[in-house]
Amino acid sequence: MDYISFNSRDYKYKYPFGAIPNGSVVTLRVMLPREILKNRVSLKIRRDDNPNFDTFDMYWDCMEGNDFEWWKIEKPIDEQGLYWYHFEYSTAFGDCNITQNDAGISQNNNDGREWQLTVYDKDFTTPDWIKGGVIYQIFPDRFARSGEPIKKNVPKDRIIRDDWGGEPGWRPNKQGKVLNNDYFAGDLKGIEKKLDYLKDLGVTCIYLNPIFEANSNHRYDTADYNKIDCLLGNQKDFENLCKKAKALGIRIILDGVFSHTGDDSIYFNRKNRYKSIGAYNSKESPYYSWYKFKQWPDDYESWWGIDVLPEVNEENPDYLNFITGENGIIRKWLKLGASGWRLDVADELPDVFIDALKKAAKAEKDDALVMGEVWEDASNKCSYGYRRRYLLGQQFDSIMNYPFANAVLYYLSTGVAEGFTNRIIDIIENYPPQVLHCLMNHIGTHDTVRAITALVAEPVGDRGREWQCDKHLNAEQKDLGIQLMKLASAIQFTLPGVPSIYYGDEIGMDGYKDPFNRYCYDWENGDEELREWYKLLGKMRSCCDALIDGDFHVVSSSNGCVAYERLKNDEGVLTVVNRNDYDIEFTIQNMHWDEMVTVVGVSPEDNTFTLPANTCTVLGWGEWAEKWCDIIN
Q1: Residue 180 — pLDDT band, cuts 50, 70, 90?
Q2: Of the candidates 148, 472, 550, 605, which lies 20 to 30 Å from 23 by C-alpha distance?
């Protein structure tokens, strides 16, 4: 007897779908064969911080034909938090549990797992300006240099490269250390000069990797949170960049590295570069209490054991005030023009620090964006032995969406469509909608292999930099890679959330891990066809409300083909992707098929079209689609 007792993704069983605000009611319905039931069906539910389940009897609702019964409960949830639930029913042979197998669907035994229910603060809001836009991530040293006169006060131990586009330094010195001290001298004025390019690409938000003074080219070893790094410019350059970007409808968000500083900083000063008395220099230093010394001065906790990155105690009152106080770092740079912060290694920051940072950001600008770097499902993330509460309303507005990135790259690199949409809906179901619609949907960052390389090149595995350094795509790989980047970006731009372009992805830049994913932007030899594709997708994002906060509806996900819709009111978008090496025929079941306008890809004849191998089609309907021809012309 085939039946489904419960499906958390079907309104017949659960309403509303997904996460809910506290103080609301969730309706749950279970269907069971009449012949096996004895007299009781119960909901078993517990809040994450309570090891014991509470039991609530469900009541008989109605019949489904002659053989099945529906049981129902309308359960108020007053407290925000993460909840877990399953069902229990009695039979003549004893009690049995209904647990989850996969994709929200039940199995009637004790071997499955509980369903998750995220209950967020009913007053939780996120910034509207980020939704429906396009993020562009820039590694500042490698995007664009202005050609302005040589910067002043550049430390003598920095190597300034004059071969823009050359291989980034990576080889260890005689002491076996990689110093990361070669610079290509990209700067803030260089970014400013490229604002029109970014505007033309459809960009509405620039995410900058660290820009504060630091003694490495990646600048994740902050030396002074109060100063722009000298090679990037100065505070005035930053203010000008923010002003000119905002005039074009582009916001700037900064990278906050607050779990550690550099050892070569005014705060630690291990190399005596600064006149200040750092924590390494004296226990009387005003910064001594910031750090976690085991035995001063040489034995201290450092980020992942890397001694040039000493960890800070984020709960130290002096440090907490320095970063999040009324005159702290967070508010200073927002006041000077930034629109938000991305927090590096968010799972290593304690709740008290994130709470204070969020309050500081919103106090300065109520629409400031606070985004966390979390590589897993952030709704149920555990770190350092306890559950995090990132998405309940008091902490992050947005998250770097690695689960989406992993799903996209796996599907397009393997051609396996089965499971793709389930991975997407896992996040949609678990995240508050306020968060969902401003997620940073990337397919690659400064921390990962370039997307085009991940899609078509040999996996890097555990191979070192010696193997990675001279690996670039051959002509055949490049051609396929460009095709697959079009598919990846079409998915990015049509999924819930905000697509994020890692600088150079739009022209097909390749490369394995750091530093080979951090080559200089190739302004001379980029793939123009791919760039035009991204521009077209950016125009689509700018005019279609369904892509801001429209519902996500799966059409199919099998046999190499993925198809889904975004729906809002009377508008919509249908995305169909063929990752097979052969053509497929696709029939549109949507009632609006005769009104559809082709955004990219092939156009249907009647309600059917042939989709060539490794291509996609995006179709739109509604008022925005009627205007599409005028928009692109």
Answers
A1: very high
A2: 550
Average pLDDT, the chain: 96
Task: Answer yes or no: do 274 and 211 share one domain.
Answer: no
Domain final position from 90, 120, 150: 120
User: What does the pLDDT average to over 47-51?
Assistant: 95
The answer to the question of residue 129 being in a domain is no
Q: Are residues 536 and 553 in the same domain?
A: no
pLDDT confidence of residue 582: 97
Residues 351 and 467 placed together within one structural domain of the fold: yes
Question: What confidence tens digit (pLDDT) does each residue in 367-417 have?
Answer: 999 999 999 999 999 998 899 999 999 999 999 999 999 999 999 999 999
Q: How many CA atoms lie within 13 A of 571 on its CB side?
A: 17
Tell me which residues are annotated as active site: 344, 373
Each as own residue / partner, the long-range contacts of residues 569-572 (CB below 8 Å, 24 or more positions apart, any chain) are 569/545, 569/622, 570/622, 570/623, 571/544, 571/545, 571/546, 571/620, 571/621, 571/622, 571/623, 571/624, 571/625, 572/546, 572/620, 572/621, 572/622
Per the structure, the count of domains in the chain is 4
Pair (323, 443) in one structural domain: yes
Measure the CA–CA gap between 202 and 540, rounded to whole angstroms: 9
Query: Does 222 lie in the same domain as 322?
Result: yes
Q: How far is CA 253 from CA 256, 264, 333, 599, in A?
A: 9, 25, 10, 30
Q: Which two tokens stand for residue 518?
A: 């951090």
Whole-number pLDDT of residue 114: 96
pLDDT at 111: 78
Specify whether 527 is located in the same domain as 393.
yes
- Owning domain of residue 54: 14-120
594 in Cβ contact with 604 (< 8 Å): no
Domain boundary among 517, 542, 567: 542
Q: Is pLDDT above 70 for 1?
A: no
Residues 329 and 274 in one domain: no
